[in-house]
Amino acid sequence: MYQAVIGVEVHFELSTETKLFCRCRNSFGEAENTLCCPVCLGLPGALPVINSRAVEYAISVGLALGCRVNSSTRFDRKSYFYPDMPNEYQTTQAFIPICVDGCVEYELDGEVKSVGIHEIHLEDDAGKLIHSDNGTRINYNRAGVPLIEIVTEPELHTAEETVAFLEELRLRMSYLGISDCKMQEGSMRVDVNLSVHKPDQPLGTRTEIKNLNSFRAVANAIKNETQRQIKVIENGGTVIQETRRFDDVKGVSTVMRSKETHEDYRFFPEPNLPPMYITDAQIDHIRTNLPEFASKRQKRLCTYYGISSADAKIITADRLVADYFEAVASLCDQREAANRIVRDLMQKQRETKIHITESHLTAEKLAEIINLFVSDRISRRTSREVADVAFCEPIDVSDYIEKNGLFQITDEQVISDAARSVISENAAVVNDYRNGKSAAFSYLVGETIKRLNGRASPQIVNKMVDLMLKSNKNL
Ligand SMILES: [Zn+2]
């Protein structure tokens, strides 16, 4: 029985204001080649300066992943030629990465597992090639954008484990708020290293799979490559160390290039940048400012607000949603708040592609709607309808309910008058009720609500019909 041995290299673009070694703005989707200067274009004589914010971000990632931060570190040149890289080398950390030896716990099917983090290093991104029928253009806006590369130990074994780990990793990165973490825009990129062996035998030769732009593609590529390597070995062949490209649409991988060795890159220390020294005080300062991460927050939301663990998990899967929930829950019934967010608003968010926090339904408005429902001023159905409208339009909640006649009738006198006439007109049904037919009671309640144009509070109607039937035995 073969086992796959998997390690991943995950790149995140850091959302700093400026690039790693120059003052050009770091921004996605701007006009081509407008965010460039002599430094990020690699012009002769231009000198890089380290962006200290990027260094802080990298340290915070290291601490979030349980790493040790190296007190002295430096940058190195990784030489290779590619048109999207103006310098003809990438500035990276080949020898002394900023963070090492971490460990991340993640959950799969209710079981807690862990994977070691070998290292995290800081490096600059390349530009982007844009291929079209008329040829290829190069956009250097991305050249010099800070990246961190997180390298795990080869301690994963299945597609499911790898994706569960990547989800946990993305969640922590999003809680840190230092990267957009969007795979489809390339701000999170995953490369998979994979080999297969029989557990009692030495490790096999690994291949690297690139070009994975969704978790689904990661899972498919792992399954595909595991089977491919097993087949090669079973047929008496040898797995070749190479870099492969996975096509998720066709479900096949093809060779990109035979794997370069370390020597091919001619690594050497970057002469234009001084070594960096990181003090314990700096590390402590960053550590104290780390956010409360999702798994911890999930537990707190359960105990503090009394919501279910399943709801808390959904809410904390997005830090902004969790913040929104806490803002709503501080103003109204907490379980109802969780219920609305998980059942209604997440659905609305998917449909409209508008994030809850960017909708018109502020935490205050949602709490107002919930309070009106809990105090029986509006029905559950109305409360959902109003929330739905308030999500897309900047309405005043009370005004809207008033104008549309959606407030429930709660006046006991009005309700008992209606109930009385319904009861007196339905002698046969009242008789059925006396003979123990429970459906007869529901019918009388329904008729009373109908008589009040469907706007009466069902609880009060129930109470009034019940009182009336009991007190007028001879009715
Ligand atoms: Zn620049």
Q: What this model shows, in words?
A:
By secondary structure, the protein is of the alpha+beta class. It folds into three domains: 3-284, no CATH class; 292-403, no CATH class; 412-471, Arc Repressor Mutant, subunit A, CATH 1.10.10.410. The protein is 40% helix and 20% strand. It has 15 helices and 16 strands. It has helices at residues 52-64, 159-176, 215-234, 280-288, 294-305, 309-316, 319-329, 334-352, 363-374, 380-392, 397-403, 412-425, 427-434, 438-451, 458-471, and strands at residues 3-13, 68-69, 72-73, 76-79, 89-92, 99-108, 111-124, 128-132, 135-139, 146-152, 188-197, 207-212, 242-247, 252-258, 268-269, 276-277. The strands form four sheets. A nine-stranded mixed sheet has the order 2-6-7-10-1-11-12-13-14. Strands 5-4-15 form a three-stranded antiparallel sheet, with no helix packed on it. β13 and β14 form a beta hairpin. α7 crosses α9 and α12 packs across α15 (458-471). The N and C termini lie far apart (81 Å). The structure holds zinc ion.
